[in-house]
Write a structure and sequence with these properties.
The complex is a heterodimer of chains A (146) and B (191). In chain A, a hairpin with a 2-residue loop joins strand 1 and strand 2. With 146 residues, chain A is of the alpha+beta class. The relative contact order of chain A is 0.19. A 5-stranded antiparallel beta sheet of chain A has the order 3-2-1-4-5. Chain A is built from 4 helices and 5 strands, in the order E-E-H-H-E-E-H-H-E. With 191 residues, chain B is an all-alpha fold. Chain B has one domain. The radius of gyration of chain B is 18 Å and the shape is globular. The two termini of chain B are 15 Å apart. Classes of the chains: A alpha+beta (146), B mainly alpha (191).
């Protein structure tokens, strides 16, 4: 199954985008992270989607979630930076064995890993911006619920 | 190199954090209904686990051991995990809103994942060096991902199975988790 669905309510319209408040799932009631999930606000998730169904405030919307796009995003957000960090630290470990200018080798290796992680983060950002410009999204409006 | 391979194999299969040490059960049950969110959660957890193990090791070696403050290990590591998760969340929210909308929900769940604190505490107990600690954190994350994805695969199949009425929901999930734990315990003694 490549799709998943959630129901939300339109609470805000901003130009061609609609702010949708997602209904709390049953799992949230017993979740240990509920208190910190959205500190300072209602505790509900908000999504801003392109208003393809011309919805109005108060409409209940069926939202489609693409699994394939979610996996792509997860890899670009976490997978790529993580692998880059690991690769950089392992290579640095082979190349740097002694302290340099009084800085211990472990800290130098970690610093190099962080630098490469930052570069991977920038690549991820560039990729996300390019994809967003092309209309790539994990969520999309499916239909207005009666 | 052999040592690193043994650490990897041990953390992924033999001492799997979820199915052998029973840490991180909350996200294991909560986010294992479908494979796609399970993989995303696994990746996010692996990311945080790896970074946490690196930062925790450095803090333990250069601050806690240096100042003889080892009794503050647990508090310091909790602080490291919470700060790291908040930093990642802020970073993701800032650089890409669509990414945050899709995957931001997993980050708060990671803060309360005791498997991450377990990794930070275990790597100090096992007296790993810096690179071993990072590999250990990464492997523990891969083990967590493996467990949660296997569970999600089985739960997706269960949706189609003819489960007796009284076993539906939490009951069959616990039974499946128990069977998986038994299966993974079969690997004990491998290393």
């Amino acid at each position: 199954m490549d799709q998943d669905f959630e129901i939300g309510e339109v609470v805000e319209i901003k130009g061609d985008r609609a702010g949708i408040e997602l209904a709390e799932s049953d799992n949230c009631h017993s979740c240990g992270a509920r208190m910190i999930c959205r500190p300072g606000d209602s505790g509900k998730r908000m999504l801003y989607l392109k208003n393809t169904l011309n919805t109005q405030i108060g409409d209940r919307i069926l939202i489609e979630q693409s699994d394939k796009n979610q996996l792509k995003l997860a890899f670009m957000q976490y997978g790529l930076p993580l692998l880059s960090f690991l690769f950089a630290v392992i290579v640095a470990n082979y190349l740097i064995s002694d302290s340099f200018l009084g800085i211990p080798s472990d800290i130098l290796q970690f610093g190099i890993g962080l630098a490469v992680l930052a570069i991977a983060g920038l690549i991820s950002r560039y990729w996300a911006k390019r994809k967003a410009a092309g209309g790539f999204s994990v969520f999309s409006m499916k239909e207005i619920c009666k | 190199m052999v040592n690193i391979f043994i650490i990897f194999l041990s953390a992924v299969i033999v001492n799997n954090y979820v199915l052998v040490n029973f840490l991180g059960i909350c996200p294991f049950i909560g986010v294992s209904k479908k494979i796609s969110p399970a993989v995303s959660m696994g990746m996010a957890t692996t990311f945080v686990m790896t970074l946490t193990s690196a930062v925790s090791w450095l803090i333990n070696k250069y601050i806690l051991e240096g100042l003889n403050l080892q009794f503050l290990q647990t508090v310091s590591f909790i602080l490291v995990i919470a700060s790291l998760v908040q930093l990642v969340e802020m970073f993701v929210k800032k650089i890409s809103k669509p990414l945050y909308d899709a995957l931001g929900i997993f980050l708060p769940l990671i803060t309360t994942n005791c498997a991450i604190l377990g990794v930070a505490l275990f790597l100090v107990l096992k007296e790993y060096n810096f690179i071993e600690s990072i590999i250990f954190g990464f492997s523990a994350g891969v083990g967590f991902t493996l467990a949660i994805v296997i569970m999600a695969g089985i739960r997706e199949e269960l949706e189609l199975a003819d489960v007796p009425e009284y076993f539906k929901g939490a009951a069959i999930t616990m039974i499946v988790a128990g069977c998986l734990a038994l299966a993974f315990m079969g690997f004990s003694g491998l290393i």
